[in-house]
Amino acid sequence: MVQVLPRIGRRRALLGSVASLVVLGLLAWWLWPSEKPPSGTITVTTGAERGVYQEYGSRLRNAIAGDMPGLRVQLMPSNGSQTNVRRVATGQADFAIAAADAVQTYIDEDQPGADQLRGVARLYDDYVQLVVPADSTIQNVSELKGKRVAVGPEGSGVRLIAERLLAADGLDIDKDIDARRDTIGTSPDALRTGRIDAFFWSGGLPTKGLTDLAEKEKYAFRFVPIRSDLVAALHDQGGVFSHYRASVMPADAYPTILTAPVPTLTVANLLITRADMDPRLTEWLTRVVLKSRDNIGQHVHAAQVVDLRTAIYTDPLRLHRGARAYYRSVKP
Do the Cβ atoms of 277 and 320 come closer than 8 Å? Predict the structure, then answer.
């Protein structure tokens, strides 16, 4: 036998159902925009041809297309970290990869827009690679005196580090060496053809320009060790120099060239943006960076070390609020 609800009960039940539908409707309205992928256009400034920044940026653009098909990503080549920091700070680009020391230098010099810079993720470390012909007599930084040395163009991160390393070993980049502006796109060929005696490079491992030199050009070269005491002398100065750490380049980075690890210097790379960047877009982009690590890492070995536990450490920059929202959402 069906029990008939009292009149007042039916009214309350009806009102309750209506209220539930309203709440569900509002909830759906609230959640739906956050589920729709951001669209529009962003500009990412990367690096030199055949460098890791350029390769990583290209692979990241492909990953973004998979999760945010309505977002158009324009890649801008550049001379490197110093140029990238300036472009983001002044609004010429929306995102960039840059070394932490270049970011710190820009802030310390109180350059335009420095206070608006924000971190998205710590990516991977750059390794300083001082390259010479296999039969070169150069064994340390101080022996570069009087030599033709490619130190990178103005605006590059490698030039910043090369200048400081040379100074730490008693050399002036403008007086004691014949400084050349070659990038990783041109330095390998300049070394192979004898136009330079050595070149500095700071990048993730391995770098395509160097693997091509070894495997395609079959050219024999080696790496000059960067002494740990030299790095310690830099690090102990504090400030921007605190971003430099003594490390070793593993032998498997360039298996056809290296037979043992090489002492060197490393500095962290950051993905950066501005404080006024759309927080929802930044949250989505941060998610893509972490989600695509393994896929990008198949092509860009350095990307394999991108990790959720370390990505939040974007010193010297505060995290962008969109990136912070992502990290909080996945916090155990």
Answer: yes
